[in-house]
């Protein structure tokens, strides 16, 4: 296992690409309304990526993926393919964006609730998934065990009545889309890895209303809940700093300090 410790030059390049990735999610929020298709969302994001951020979509062409973003609707846990089906009141959708610029990758995702007529349980799912991400970020500092991230997420999620997906995880990121270490979102052995200043990785918990088990759809990409119940995910790219952390994909008006640990 080779874990990258980024120098100041690399970190500054990561700040740039990650900020641009966050701008995609800020931009698209205006368009997320009942009646829009995920195909249209992909089109809008692609144009913004190319023309405004002057970046490249890391998803487009990745292992044959044909779209610029992932759009995971309702019971799709992750890697959903944009299509021409219209989003309707009560749906939820995760938009996952990864950009490539100046030799580095930035990765982030966010949930969007469609309209105003959604069930309280679904709103709670999205809210608590975001909180589980925040509380895991807030513990990050040099010297702690990597496994504490997943342990923190699982403890919080299950306390709130949700299950944590086991089959997919966060990852190191930088000059490569996916690097070591693997970031589990549940408690398991972490190979003794200790967080160090300069490490950069994604944390992207996926919480389900029902069982944590998933399956891969016949399209070869979309991961779905085994019991067809809704799933939610939020993702940030995070840097371990000298004494704490820096969220490289933090969006405007996003404040994690309201979460107490």
The total tally of domains equals 1
Class by helix and strand content?
alpha+beta
Q: Tell me the strand percentage band.
A: 15-25%
CATH topology: Creatine Amidinohydrolase
**Rg measurement, Å:** 17 Å
CATH class reads Alpha Beta
Rounded average pLDDT:
97
DSSP helical segment count? 4
Poorly predicted segments = none
Q: What is the strand and helix layout of this fold?
A:
Elements lengths: L7 H21 L9 H14 L4 E2 L12 E4 L2 E3 L13 E10 L2 E10 L6 H19 L8 H13 L3 E2 L5 E3 L6 E5 L16 E4 L2 E3 L5 E3 L6 E3 L5 E3 L2 E5 L4 E3 L14
Helix pairs in contact: 1-2, 3-4
Catalytic activity: Release of N-terminal amino acids, preferentially methionine, from peptides and arylamides
EC number: 3.4.11.18
Family: Belongs to the peptidase M24A family. Methionine aminopeptidase type 1 subfamily.
Tell me about this structure.
By secondary structure, this protein is α+β, with helices and mostly antiparallel strands. The chain has a single domain (8-247), classed as Creatine Amidinohydrolase (Alpha-Beta Complex). 26% of the residues lie in helices and 24% in strands. It is built from four helices and 15 strands. It has helices at 8-28, 38-51, 120-138, 147-159, and strands spanning 56-57, 70-73, 76-78, 92-101, 104-113, 163-164, 170-172, 179-183, 200-203, 206-208, 214-216, 223-225, 231-233, 236-240, 245-247. The strands form five sheets. Strands 1, 2, 4 and 5 form a four-stranded antiparallel sheet that branches. A hairpin with a 6-residue loop joins strand 7 and strand 8 (179-183). The longest helix has 21 residues, at 8-28. It is globular and about 45 Å long. The model has no long low-confidence stretch (mean pLDDT 97).
């Amino acid at each position: 296992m080779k874990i990258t410790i980024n120098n100041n030059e690399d970190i500054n390049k990561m700040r740039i690409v990650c900020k641009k990735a966050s701008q995609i999610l800020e931009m698209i929020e205006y368009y997320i309304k009942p009646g829009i298709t995920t195909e249209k969302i992909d089109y809008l994001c692609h144009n913004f990526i190319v023309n405004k951020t002057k970046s490249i979509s890391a998803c487009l062409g990745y292992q044959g993926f044909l779209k610029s973003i992932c759009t995971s609707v309702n019971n799709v846990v992750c890697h959903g393919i944009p299509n021409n089906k219209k989003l309707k009141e009560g749906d939820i959708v995760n938009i996952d964006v990864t950009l490539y610029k100046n030799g580095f990758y930035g990765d982030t995702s966010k949930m969007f609730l469609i309209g105003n007529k959604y069930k309280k349980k679904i709103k709670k799912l999205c809210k608590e998934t975001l909180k589980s991400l925040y509380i895991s970020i807030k513990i990050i500092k040099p010297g702690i065990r990597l496994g504490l991230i997943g342990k923190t997420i699982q403890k919080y999620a299950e306390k709130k009545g949700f299950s944590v997906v086991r089959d997919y995880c966060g990852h190191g990121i930088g000059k490569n889309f996916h690097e070591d270490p693997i970031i589990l979102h549940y408690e398991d052995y972490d190979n003794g890895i200790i967080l160090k200043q300069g490490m950069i990785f994604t944390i992207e918990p996926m919480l389900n209303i029902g069982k944590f088990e998933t399956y891969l759809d016949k399209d070869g990409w979309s991961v779905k809940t085994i019991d067809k119940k809704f799933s939610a995910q939020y993702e940030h790219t995070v840097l371990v700093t000298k004494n704490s952390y820096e969220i490289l994909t933090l969006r405007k008006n996003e404040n994690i300090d309201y979460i107490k640990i």
